[in-house]
Write a structure and sequence with these properties.
heterodimer, A: Phosphorylase Kinase, domain 1, Transferase(Phosphotransferase), domain 1, B: 8 helices, about 35% helix, globular
């Protein structure tokens, strides 16, 4: 089996081979055979230029149409009699038009099942992650960089309430600027739409090496399934081996329900413990023990120093066979949690507390801590990032950090930790970051956007005439942030009492 | 063309006005009423006048079991309270309204859609679509690709692909659902005037024939006034409570 081939999209089985078109389909145009298409032909106005690919599942054509300003491809499924392939194409036709943003191909149009089913979408100019597989094992920093970009794309998809369910190298592309793009939504599930693949297909749907334990058990409603698949990719990129092999039978797929993967450090003694921690956490059999969101995974991959190391990080051999029951027990004792993707994401936002630690901030400090604490209370798996911006001189950007600069940086970190101490958060739930910038608002916004932050808590010191003229940091953050912002003020009476 | 699908209004003036205003705001240009205009509620006269006016202006109205009973055909399946409502209603209908109810058709067809009050296999028998079993029966018999039914007061969407297995989906209000042409669908918009799923807000749906998008809606309305009127009319208390609690 070639696990990365497009034809591996569904291990799903043919169900009722006798089923055909339902009675009474409306009178339809004559069907067109996808095999009879030729260069220069037009399909609904799209001019076919060159066939780029023909795999087992679909043919891809380079197409143009006068009203479409970007390079486009037409994906024409080669459906045959396989119901999963047909339903998969229906799913992609249903979900892709609803998706937006840089992490998915732009939708252009579709053809119905009456004559020739097809999807036309943006032609991606970049490379596939599959190309990187030839160079495995890759250095840790490169694995982390690739993984963080894919995790960012996954978080964006999950925010759109869609689970991909077939994350694998051939379904991940990179734009020329490095942005990861997810393709092939044939196994996807949208939280707010009927799951067309919920039909009782006999075999689990996914691709052998990457399919999550819960998908093997026919549970299609957990966004953390995509994090498991990404964990398999990271493991492979970092070690050159697949953690669960490339099984093709259901029995083979089920092994991941009870067999722990060999820790990467058992394969390479110099493997960084933090990366092992991250990868093995993705590969947990119980989704509750994985990262709660792709944003949290991306955060760890971009902040290796902030990764809290557990026993996972140090393991240098696979647990002995007699301990395998632990893994299967973890799966069995916990009933699968049923949460929508939105609920799952709302449980675990990255919350930024933006702390201006300069003069006369004590009054605000308490109010900010209370507000941040309240946000954390309502989101049991939230992670708090305490961020402060050291304002640098615009002109002195390129001067090296002198001794006093380094001192100020450390001083800020200490202050941040001091501020957070009363919240009594365990080390895995809080991190501290001192940014340096001449423009605090821009620095905070960059940080929030770069880390898929879900909520910003920021203070406002009331209005001086100067602030009204220049605009305060909190005003700018509120105006430009792409997430929710809580602006905290000190009540006037308290301010007066302190004055 | 956006079709508004309204069903099981049950003499509820407040709910019907709210849904009609909501549909108008969303650009509905065709109204299809799937039956049960009367029974349970306190405003049969106003509801019938409104329905007849809509039909004069091009709407399609179908016959439900309560309409049949109020129009004069006795329905042995109605329980005592429902029968009491029907007798109360009959005394309040004008001859023209009674004649209108007696003249209503059981089904209507438009392109790939079938509209019917209870089910497509026996429109005059008023059997319920209680779950995937009955939904599958409907989809196996009906030639149209999409069936719209009332009778069941809870919004629901059934679908069947090439594997001939019937799946059920509880629709999320306000989310347009693309009805794939490769699949058969059975949509129950839910009741305008007697919601019974624990949410007192009125149910209805819109369907865009060009884009194939079906949207289920929940419309909050002044259900306390509607319940008050049921009590004031001396109708059974349970029908007032159902409006207050949506169950």
């Amino acid at each position: 089996m070639a696990p990365e081939s497009d034809s591996a999209a569904a291990a799903g089985a043919a169900a009722d081979p006798g089923a055909d078109t339902p009675a009474g389909s409306p009178a339809s145009p004559a069907p067109v055979s996808p095999y009879a298409l030729e260069q220069g032909q037009r399909v609904d106005g799209f001019l076919l230029h060159e066939r780029l690919h023909r795999g087992g599942m679909a043919a891809l054509w380079d197409v143009t149409r006068d009203d479409v300003p970007i390079p486009a491809i037409m994906k024409i499924p080669l459906l045959g009699d396989d119901p999963t392939a047909i339903v998969g194409f229906e799913v992609e036709q249903m979900i892709l038009p609803l998706l937006h943003g840089p992490h998915v191909p732009r939708w252009i149009g579709a053809g119905g099942f009456e004559s020739l089913p097809y999807i036309v979408m943006e032609m991606l100019q970049g490379e596939s992650l599959r190309g990187h597989l030839e160079r495995v094992p890759l250095p840790a920093d490169e694995v982390a960089d690739l993984g963080a970009r894919v995790a960012e794309a996954l978080h964006d998809l999950h925010q759109q309430q869609v689970i991909h369910h077939d994350i694998k190298p051939s379904n991940i592309m990179f734009r020329q600027d490095g942005t990861a793009v997810l393709i092939d939504f044939g196994l996807a599930r949208h939280d707010r739409l009927p799951d067309l693949l919920a039909e009782q297909f006999r075999l689990p749907m996914g691709t052998g090496p990457y399919i999550s334990p819960e998908q093997v058990l026919h549970n299609r409603s957990d966004s953390r399934s995509d994090l498991f698949a990404l964990g398999v990719i990271l493991y492979y990129l970092a070690t050159g081996e697949r953690p669960f092999g490339a099984p093709t039978s259901v029995r083979g797929l089920r092994r991941r329900l009870y067999e722990e993967p060999v820790p990467p450090r058992a394969r390479r003694a110099d493997f960084p413990p933090w990366l092992q921690e991250v990868i093995l956490r993705c590969l947990e059999v119980d989704p509750e023990r994985r990262y709660a969101t792709a944003a949290l995974l991306a955060f760890d991959l971009t902040h290796p120093d902030a990764v809290v190391l557990t026993a996972r990080a140090q393991a240098a051999r696979r647990p002995p066979a007699w301990r395998r029951w632990q893994r299967s027990l973890r799966r069995m004792i916990r009933q699968p949690t049923v949460r929508s993707t939105t609920q799952q994401l709302n449980r675990a936002p990255i919350v930024v507390a933006a702390l201006d630690l300069s003069q006369d901030w004590e009054a605000l400090s308490d109010a900010l801590r209370t507000a941040a604490g309240n946000v954390l209370l309502s989101a049991p798996e939230a992670r708090l990032a305490c961020v402060s911006v050291l304002k640098t001189n615009r002109m002195g950007m390129d001067t090296p950090v002198d001794e006093s600069g380094a001192h100020r940086h450390v001083q800020r970190l200490v202050q941040l930790q001091h501020w957070a101490r009363p919240l009594a958060l365990p080390s895995g739930r809080v991190t501290f970051h001192v940014l340096e910038s001449p423009d605090p608002a821009a620095a905070l916004l960059d940080y929030a956007n770069g880390n898929q932050v879900g909520h910003i808590v920021i203070g406002s010191r009331g209005s001086s005439s100067l602030k009204r003229y220049l605009g305060s940091v909190s005003t700018q953050v509120v105006a430009q942030a792409s997430c929710s912002v809580t602006v905290v003020k000190v009540p006037a009476a308290e301010r007066a009492a302190r004055a | 063309m956006t079709i508004a699908l309204l069903t099981d209004i049950h003499s509820n003036r407040e709910a019907l006005s709210a849904c009609l205003a909501h549909a108008q705001d969303r650009g509905a240009d065709q109204y299809i009423l799937l039956g049960d205009y009367v029974g349970y509620g306190a405003d049969p006269g106003w509801v019938m006048d409104t329905v007849m006016d809509l039909v004069d202006r091009g709407a399609i109205a179908l016959r439900g079991n309560h309409d049949e009973a109020a129009g004069g055909t006795d329905d042995p399946r109605l329980n005592d309270d429902a029968r009491l409502c029907i007798d109360w209603t009959r005394r309040r209908l004008t001859p023209a309204q009674g004649a209108f109810l007696r003249g209503l058709p059981f089904t209507a067809q438009d392109g790939s859609c079938l509209f019917v009050h209870a089910n497509g296999w026996d429109p005059q028998g008023f059997e319920y679509i209680l779950g995937p079993m009955q939904a599958a029966r409907n989809m196996q018999v009906v030639r149209a690709r999409i069936t719209f039914c009332g009778h069941m007061h809870e919004p629901m969407l059934y679908h069947m692909g090439l594997t001939q297995r019937c799946e059920v989906f509880a629709p999320i209000p306000g989310t347009p659902i693309p009805l794939s042409a490769a699949r058969r669908w059975l949509a129950l918009p839910g009741s305008v005037g007697q919601p019974r799923d624990g949410n007192p807000a009125a149910c209805y749906a819109t369907f865009d024939e060009i884009t194939n998008l079906l949207t289920f809606w929940r419309v909050p309305y002044d259900h306390e006034s509607a319940a008050r009127k049921v009590r004031a009319a001396g109708l059974p208390e349970r029908y007032a409570l159902q409006l207050l609690h949506g169950a």
